[in-house]
Amino acid sequence: METNELQISRNIKSCREKRGKTQDDIANIMEITKQTYLKIENNPMNYSINKLNDVANAIGCNIDEFFLKSSFTES
């Protein structure tokens, strides 16, 4: 079963929140505006795998976590 964009977006947010980071924190780490980060988090399928890997690195997680079913990312 493929993971849809909404699930990926939720997983990105979940990974970020689990690590106690805000959208502002990630935007600052990536040296982008918060608005740009919001676009990435809310519409991840519009961005390259390299950009999503940059997000994962900024969050401090493995990019694989973005593509797991919600039952694997919830704790």
Q: What does the model show?
A:
The chain is mostly helical and 75 residues long. It has a single domain (5-73), classed as lambda repressor-like DNA-binding domains (434 Repressor (Amino-terminal Domain), Orthogonal Bundle), CATH 1.10.260.40. Helices cover 61% and strands 0% of the residues. It has helices at 5-18, 23-30, 34-42, 49-59, 70-73. α2 packs across α3. The longest helix is centred in the first third of the chain and has 14 residues, at 5-18. The mean pLDDT is 91.
Kindly list the characteristics that best describe this protein.
about 80 residues; mainly alpha; 434 Repressor (Amino-terminal Domain); about 0% strand; globular
Based on the coordinates given, report the CATH architecture: Orthogonal Bundle
* Rg calc: 11 Å
Q: Which fold name corresponds to the CATH topology?
A: 434 Repressor (Amino-terminal Domain)
Run of helices and strands: HHHHH
What is the CATH top level name? Mainly Alpha
Largest pleated sheet: none
Q: Per DSSP, what share of the residues sits in E-state strands of 2 or more residues? A: under 5%
- Total number of helices: 5
Number of strands: 0
Report the structural category: mainly alpha
Shape: globular
Given as residue ranges, the uncertain stretches (5+ residues, pLDDT < 50) are none
Mean pLDDT over the full residue set: 91
CATH superfamily: lambda repressor-like DNA-binding domains
- The percent of residues in helical segments reads 55-70%
Number of domains: 1
Terminus-to-terminus distance: 21 Å
